Amino acid sequence: MANTLDPMDIKQIITLHLDGLSNRKIGHTLGISRNTVNNYMKLINACDHSPIWS
What we know:
Blueprint: H1 7-18, H2 23-30, H3 34-46
């Protein structure tokens, strides 16, 4: 079974991204794969009504 991130981890990914960190640095900071960060960012960006970027 694949590991999942809890909502707090996702919030941290978004916060670090908005702070200007690269996906590689976000992954290193949170102890997760850069590819995991990439996948979550794709899902976040695909959301039509995401209030994150407003």
